[in-house]
Amino acid sequence: MMPRFAYSLLLYLLTPLILLRLFWRGRKQPEYRQNIGERFGFYGQQGKNPEKQPTIWLHAVSVGETRAAQPLIDALQARWPSHRILLTGMTPTGRATGHEVYGDRVIQAYLPYDLPGAVDRFFRHFSPDFGVLMETEIWPNLLASAQRRNIPVLLVNARLSARSAKSYGRIAALVRPAFAALTSVAAQTAADAERLGALGARTVEVCGNLKFDVLPPSERLALGQTWRSAIGNRPVWLAASTREGEEALILDAWRRHGGPSCLLVLVPRHPQRFADVAALLETQQFKYVRRSQGLPDNATQVWLGDSMGEMAAYYTMADLAFIGGSLLALGGQNLIEAAACHCPVLVGPHTFNFLRATEDAIAAGAALRVSDPDALIVAVDRLLNAKSRSTKELAAMQQAAIEFATAHRGATRRTLSLIERDSGMNSAPNPAQPAGH
């Protein structure tokens, strides 16, 4: 109790700074200044349930987790059709993605900060039958409150890098009871399962990665094909989900190597950085067009992807994609969506956040690792210049991407089976659709 008391006291003391940070981020993304009461457990009429409809709660912190949850939410709604789904998150972009992907099929709200009073208000307001946390969302007060109320909470699609496990280990007195409070854990890999178990999680099973079960929306694939047709035969490479500092490295290396003739589609990960990246392109005097302004022409060197929810379209139009967050020591981003869109991949040296998926893709021939920005541009030029495009290397990578994405599907079915067993829900499946569909 003492470590959690000290942790809670620290959170209360930091609350003014947390509010300042919200308003600071709201300068570029005004949505951060909306629904602030929800972040402290005050929901008003949001999610009111006068008919006392039973509720399943699923927490997906931001955009990636929200999209990854789609096959599981579909399966939960098919398995328990009389329940409503409460989807919580922490970011405005995640909330916007939830609206885009699920529409009115789910209720959305922010999960409150991990303050004792706030999480208690959350559970009183929504009264879920059970909760599902996506990936690595461990909040000591939240889990303690759920445990007091006998609300089962499961951690699914769980991943934990060696680096994160080491960090958690330094505060084991605080987090070990939180991991132990989880009813069960569906880990992505055996290595994840071992690290989670070592930190106190009791019932851990390997169920795979739900992101392999997310099929790209057909309308996004069609949009990407439309873009590709408009561009013509010009080679296209995509720098996807780039992080701060990476764009400058990529552009500098591209210029050093003479600016290969292919079109670069540059899509920063965070929308609040779109304007900053546009300013960088201006400063470096690249000929660029923003996605919001129209399609590129033959003179365009960079097409700046300043849109949300269109990553599948970008992957579809590209001959080759670099996955951002991996040139700098940021841990990388997930390459599974690229593979699902049949797009070969390049990654930098830093992929510790998604190590297993990345290493599997490299072993399958669907991805290549490059050591630095110069090696990245050399690889792009080799794979996309006029001579090498007639060889089999790029086509082999594309076929490997298709096979890699297909071979790893099935996590939704395994995860749903674990939820059925451990959530305390014993209602019969919907006869109109088999469980795990």
Describe the protein's architecture and organization:
With 437 residues, the protein is an alpha/beta fold. The chain is 45% helix and 14% strand. It contains 18 helices and 14 strands. The protein has helices at 2-25, 63-68, 70-79, 92-102, 116-126, 140-148, 162-170, 172-181, 190-198, 218-231, 246-256, 274-283, 311-317, 336-340, 355-364, 373-384, 393-407, 411-422, and strands at residues 55-59, 84-89, 106-110, 130-134, 153-158, 184-187, 204-206, 236-242, 263-268, 288-290, 302-304, 320-323, 345-347, 367-369. The protein has a 7-stranded parallel sheet with strand order 3-2-1-4-5-6-7, with helices on both faces. Strand 12 (320-323), helix 14 (336-340) and strand 13 (345-347) form a beta-alpha-beta unit. Helix 6 (140-148) packs across helix 8. The protein is globular, with a radius of gyration of 22 Å. The model is unreliable at 427-437 (pLDDT under 50).
**What fraction of the residues are assigned to beta strands by DSSP?**
5-15%
**Class of secondary structure makeup:** alpha/beta
Strand order of the largest sheet: 3-2-1-4-5-6-7
Query: Mind telling me the C-alpha Rg?
Result: 22 Å
Low-confidence stretches: 427-437
Label this structure with key terms.
alpha/beta, single chain, 45% helix, 7-stranded parallel β-sheet, globular, disordered C terminus, 437 residues, 18 helices
Short synopsis of the structure:
The protein is an alpha/beta fold and 437 residues long.
SSE layout and pairing:
Blueprint: H1 2-25, E1 55-59, H2 63-68, H3 70-79, E2 84-89, H4 92-102, E3 106-110, H5 116-126, E4 130-134, H6 140-148, E5 153-158, H7 162-170, H8 172-181, E6 184-187, H9 190-198, E7 204-206, H10 218-231, E8 236-242, H11 246-256, E9 263-268, H12 274-283, E10 288-290, E11 302-304, H13 311-317, E12 320-323, H14 336-340, E13 345-347, H15 355-364, E14 367-369, H16 373-384, H17 393-407, H18 411-422
Parallel strand pairs: 1-2, 1-4, 2-3, 4-5, 5-6, 6-7, 8-9, 8-12, 9-11, 10-11, 12-13, 13-14
Helix pairs in contact: 3-18, 5-6, 6-8, 10-13, 11-16
